[in-house]
Design a protein that fits this description.
This protein is an alpha/beta fold. The protein folds into three domains: 212 residues, 3-Layer(bba) Sandwich (FAD/NAD(P)-binding domain), CATH 3.50.50; 110 residues, FAD/NAD(P)-binding domain, CATH 3.50.50.60; 105 residues, FAD/NAD-linked reductase, C-terminal dimerisation domain (Enolase-like, domain 1), CATH 3.30.390.30. 30% of the residues lie in helices and 25% in strands. The chain is globular and about 65 Å long. It starts with a strand and ends in a 7-residue tail after the last helix. The chain binds nicotinamide-adenine-dinucleotide.
Length: 462
């Protein structure tokens, strides 16, 4: 049995793990990365990238439909699911090749097998033909999460998709019920509705996307309903019955009525559970089902760090990467922490939702003295030119100094625009500074300027 020694061993090759491995190598450490599946993890292979590629198709389909009212007609539209999925696979492959190249450049040894941490410093990897034992002075756990499957009556006999399997669906279903109206649920609803699939969302909360502010949920719900997506909130799934190739979903509605939905496909999107079995032997201190870490991303064992979904908190790829960078720096002897004040949160539906910093509810809860301005996009030239005027921009700033605390935007391309208020929060910028900056006209970004100018009582259009 061979024993290979490294200064840093990273378990998991997603956006937390591979970024940590590259950073540790750049800091001069000898590094091994263990990944049982494809490099890039959930984000690249079964999450962010496939969903955004297919959402781009949805956007184009929607634009073609909308263009009829502008006097542009294309004739009947046809879809090729296989070509759409092939483009999605090509995008994934290109990015995966990029990661592979970066790991080679960093002289990182990649082990493609199941890793198990036996004890601090000792990891076994089950490869196709043999087992290897690795020694790691420091270990970074980046094992991510998997789709949660709730214990609904009948679920074990029923066929259903999760975000792990939906991106390889073989044919466009005649109907779809999405259980869970969170981020995965609403993004996938937009994809399938654009393919003319009647979609129903069953959400147990009183609104969809409960992780965002209520007014964002409301604006999105209005748009989804226009796309003929049915939304059932305050609704419980009581039982699922497989009937040949179809499923009957028994629900209890908000009014307490028992109803049945008959569908050809179910997508389960009720959250994600952390993958902790690879290091169960360690008996690390936990925070519920998640690994407990301190601000340095260190676990209860000082030689072991953990990053990304396995630690709970924000289950976002960019947060996992930021944590990976910090864990690598600290594993290499540094003293870094992650700044969570300005984590951009993006939902790539149409319209898009993007937010950063505090929500109004959080500002209130923290007892902060704040003032809010909301600018609707109905008066924004670019939004009207684009025929996408449903959105708005909401700005929250501290009353005393005008420091920007949080921004919420709903509308076209706001997932890109949110970088501007993120930079302001990062640099502790104020509404005066934002209002003194020339913004290009016509742009959706002007709504940020308008909100700031209005906040200090100097608005022109608001
Ligand atoms: P989520 O937590 O966003 O939403 C799950 C939803 O399911 C919630 O609204 C919840 O109330 C509902 N729910 C739970 N149990 C239910 C039940 N039995 N019946 C009906 N509804 C039920 O989780 P998700 O959508 O699965 O996404 C998982 C994670 O992935 C999230 O943390 C999200 O941040 C991340 N993600 C991010 C993006 C992005 O950044 N654009 C995209 C997709 C996923």
């Amino acid at each position: 049995m061979l024993v290979n020694s490294y200064e840093v061993v990273v378990l998991g090759g997603g956006p937390g793990g591979y970024v940590a491995a590259i950073r540790a190598a750049k800091l001069g450490k000898t590094v091994a990365l263990i990944e049982v599946r494809e490099l890039g993890g959930t984000c690249l292979n079964r999450g962010c990238i496939p969903s955004k590629t297919l959402l781009r198709h949805a956007e184009v389909i929607e634009t073609i439909e909308k263009a009829k009212s502008w006097g542009i007609e294309t004739g009947d539209m046809t879809f090729s699911l296989s070509k759409m999925l092939a483009r999605k696979d090509a995008v994934i492959k290109q990015l995966r090749t990029g990661i592979d190249h970066l790991l080679k450049q960093g002289k990182i040894d990649v082990y493609n097998g199941v890793g198990k941490v036996q004890a601090a410093g000792k990891i076994t990897v089950q490869l196709a033909d043999k087992e290897e034992v690795l020694q790691g002075e420091k270990i970074i756990l980046a094992t991510g999460s998997r789709p949660l499957v709730p214990p609904i009556d009948g679920i074990e006999e029923a066929a259903y998709f999760t975000s792990d399997t939906i991106f390889d669906i073989e044919k466009i279903p005649k109907s779809m019920v999405i259980i869970g109206g969170g981020i995965i649920g609403v993004e996938l609803a937009c994809i399938f509705a654009s393919l003319n699939v009647p979609v129903s969302i069953v959400e147990m909360n009183d609104r969809i996307v409960p992780s965002e502010e209520p007014e964002a949920s409301k604006a999105l719900a209005r748009s989804l309903k226009k796309k003929k997506i049915s939304i059932m909130t305050n609704t419980k799934v009581t039982k699922i019955e497989q009937q040949g190739a179809r499923q009957l979903i028994h629900i209890e509605t908000a009014q307490g009525k028992a109803e049945t939905l008959d569908t050809e496909a179910i997508l389960m999107a009720v959250g994600r559970a952390p993958n902790t079995s690879a290091f169960a032997e360690l008996k690390l201190e936990m925070d519920g089902p998640f690994v407990k870490v301190d601000s340095a991303m260190q676990t209860s064992d000082p030689t072991i760090y953990a990053v990304g979904d396995v630690t709970g908190g924000w289950q976002l790829a960019h947060v996992a990467s930021a944590e990976g960078v910090v864990a690598a720096a600290n594993a290499a002897g540094g003293k870094q922490t992650v700044d969570y004040r300005m984590v951009p949160r993006c939902v790539y539906t149409s319209p898009e939702i993007a937010s950063v910093g505090l929500t109004e509810a959080e500002a209130k809860q923290q007892g902060i003295d704040y003032k809010v301005v909301r600018v609707d996009h109905a008066g924004n030239g670019r939004a009207l030119a684009q025929d996408e005027k449903e959105g708005f921009t909401k700005l929250i700033a501290g009353t005393q100094y005008g420091e920007i605390l949080g921004v919420l935007m709903v509308g076209p391309h706001v997932t890109e625009i949110i970088a501007e208020p993120s930079a302001f929060i990062h640099l502790e910028g104020t509404v005066d500074e934002l209002a003194s900056m020339i913004h290009a006209h016509p742009t959706i970004t002007e709504s940020l300027y308008e909100a700031a100018a209005s906040w200090i009582g100097k608005g022109v259009h608001h």
